[in-house]
Design goal:
The complex is a heterodimer of chains A (192) and B (245). Chain A is globular. In chain A, helix 9 packs across helix 10. Chain A is mainly alpha-helical. Chain A starts with 7 loop residues before the first helix and ends in a 15-residue tail after the last helix. Chain B is globular and about 70 Å long. Chain B has a seven-stranded antiparallel sheet with strand order 1-2-3-4-7-6-5, sandwiched between helices. Chain B folds into two domains: 47 residues, no CATH class; 133 residues, MucB/RseB, C-terminal domain (Phosphorylase Kinase, domain 1), CATH 3.30.200.100. Classes of the chains: A mainly alpha (192), B alpha+beta (245). Chains A and B meet through helix 1, helix 2, helix 3, helix 7 and helix 8 of A and helix 1, helix 3 and helix 4 of B.
């Protein structure tokens, strides 16, 4: 326990530096680009440092993550085209996976090749394939362990929206990663 | 059998321990009579277990960590002064002596850890700090820890013996991340901290009016902290050990 009031840099290091792993993880899943993520995190740390005087309590992690998220989005706009491309891609892969699941083919199939991949890679690419609002909610909750209130702060939406995005995001991941439900009826129970 | 559309979001909230008591009770009652929603709950938990698997989370590259640590803005405000040459041998000697002391001291300063146990307990009682996952359901608390810590604490149900489960959270002790299970006793709270550590002998002590009991089992160390009488805490320990079987 320190008795003297720590100065600005000390306070910043104590509040922010423990969350760099999480910051990098968030950047990786938002940008889906390892190189870009390094720039994003370094940039976010510098911005956070300059803005730290305005930090008024609350969760320093959520505060840092909000900055990382903004930096990620700015970086992606600078480097790439639009977000709509992302959504189309994920819709495609969603269909592709459903298609694969429908064929019970004993010969070497994309499905088998898929399952031969390392589990981690499979989970990672499944996360990367879902649309951004769901992806960031799932990453913040299930990988970083933020509360709904913190996720609402980071992503600037209502807590109810957080719950709904998580619910849908996990449903998409369940569809990709888990065996189909017993007696699942694809027609009547599509992921809303 | 499909899950009920009107329950899907509530199931998510339940798994995350983000529902208030009334909604938790409603969903848990619904789960008791709906196979489809129970299956959906298992699927949500299965997905969470996959997401929490080792390696899914990207780790900060060492090179980036070093680059950030070296940013001039973040370097310590008071850079260490260069030592005059004549002082250096003395300092080296002092350093060697203190290193020797560190190696001779028992691992972890026991009284500091004891104090931290009590402080963690007190801090957890502040509003909003007690549980990260709030539910009376042991099957939600246990998987909640998956991927957050690299060990799996037992979470027995003790409600019938007067210690209802209230939830769990992560806490830190002696620089390590530990699991904290929260049980209630009447209006009191029992925090049970769990971390991996080779077996040590049981001990119990009182500090600042709180009772503490520690024991080891299956490579895990348990420390229960509460303001209930020491005899009741002993009873808690006995029950917990017996039901973890």
């Amino acid at each position: 326990m320190k008795t003297s009031a720590p100065d600005h840099a000390d306070a910043f290091r104590q509040a922010i530096l423990p969350h760099l792993d999480g910051a990098y993880n968030l950047a990786r899943y938002v940008t889906r680009d390892a190189v870009l993520s390094e720039d994003v995190v370094q940039d976010a740390v510098l911005r956070a440092y300059r803005a730290f005087g305005q930090f008024r309590g609350g969760s320093p992690r959520a505060w840092l993550f909000a900055i990382v998220r903004n930096c990620s989005r700015t970086a992606m706009q600078g480097r790439r085209g639009t977000v709509s491309l992302v959504v189309n891609e994920s819709a495609l892969s969603d269909e592709a996976v459903a298609e694969v699941g429908n064929h019970a083919d004993p010969s070497p199939s994309p499905e088998e090749e898929f399952s031969r991949k390392q589990d981690v890679e499979r989970v990672r690419s499944a996360i990367e394939a879902i649309p951004e609002p769901f992806r960031e909610a799932v990453v913040l909750r299930d990988l970083e362990g933020l509360s709904y209130a913190e996720i609402a702060d980071v992503t600037d939406v209502a807590v109810g929206t957080v719950m709904s995005r998580l619910s849908r995001g996990r449903a998409m991941l369940a569809k990709e990663l888990l065996p189909p439900r017993k007696e699942e009826d694809e027609q009547s129970r599509s992921v809303k | 059998m499909p899950a009920c559309a009107d329950q899907e979001m509530l199931l998510t909230g339940l798994v995350d321990g983000e529902l208030d008591a009334a909604n938790s009770a409603l969903v848990e009652a619904h789960l008791a009579r709906c196979d489809g929603c129970r299956e959906e709950l298992e699927r949500i938990q299965a997905v969470r277990a996959l997401l929490g698997g080792r390696g899914v989370r990207h780790k900060l590259p060492d090179a980036l960590a070093q680059r950030i640590a070296a940013l001039p803005e973040l370097s310590p405000a008071r850079p260490p002064r260069r030592l005059p040459g004549w002082l250096a041998p003395g300092v080296a000697g002092a350093l060697a002596a203190s290193l020797l002391m560190v190696t001779l001291l028992p691992p972890g300063n026991q009284s500091v850890v004891d104090q931290e146990l009590v402080s963690d307990h007190v801090r957890s009682l502040q509003p909003g700090h007690l549980t990260d996952v709030q539910t009376t359901n042991q099957h939600i608390v246990k998987p909640w820890f998956n991927g957050k810590i690299d060990f799996s604490p037992p979470v027995p149900e003790l409600a019938d013996a007067g210690f209802p489960l209230a939830g769990g959270r992560l806490d830190s002790l002696d620089g390590k991340t530990v699991a904290a299970l929260v049980y209630h006793r009447r209006l009191h709270t029992v925090n049970l901290f769990v971390w991996p550590e080779a077996g040590r002998s049981e001990r119990s002590f009182a500090k600042d009016g709180f009772s503490v009991r520690e024991w080891s089992r299956d490579g895990l160390r348990f420390a229960a902290v509460s303001d209930i009488p020491a005899a009741e805490l002993a009873q808690f320990q006995a029950l917990f050990v017996q039901r973890s079987g």
